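fyi for ur records
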Amino acid sequence: MLTKRSPNSDSVRYFDNNASLDPPTVSYEAVMRSDDGVKKWTGGFWRFTADLASKDSAYTQAALAAHTDTTYFTDPAGLQTFHLHSHTNGNGGASLLVDGFAVAERLRTESLEAFQDLCRIKIRGHSSGNEGIAIMPVHSFPVISVEDTESGKRGRVTQIRWNNDDRAAMMGLKSEDISKFYAAARKWVEILRRPESECWVQLTPGKVLTNMDDFISRWKTLHVPKKTWLQCI
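which gave:
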């Protein structure tokens, strides 16, 4: 979802596979002319590449489906910036952006039952690949979070939490809800993978990608011999 609006505005502009033609941008000067500009737009940094330094699929050359990060946190990562430092003797490596909010609204239109099930059925994410590490949120969350309304109907979408690779065991759910979740997830993924949903961006050294991760299901990395990313949250 691309927005240039006040917090109380109802004006929303969704993006599709043409978003790379006119992406929202921040000027170099706004970020780099002062320390205050840097602090406003960046946080902590870490550097990573496909070396399995962490037991995480992001540290491999495997292709990743569209997803949001840190579903295993109670409060997932928000604004993230990615900068490709090097792309040595490589090919591919394009990034995939999918507007999770737009997908949620398409799902609401095409299959209201599936939309309601992904708003209602709560699941957990987890991170446990490295020795001594086991991270889970304090409680379960739905894939799609929405505002409550006075009428009782499900309101505007406020958050997307989707990462099939980080989904924990579905403990404590009724068997019928597990079946409904998988049926709804199947429809959700079908919309995610439509060509009109996918916006592909090829980063190069010097070109920075910033996204609000709870707004955008993100990332699909193709095979490359050597690629180094700098990520900040």
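Residues 2-9, 217-225, 228-233 have pLDDT under 50 and may be disordered. thats all i got for now
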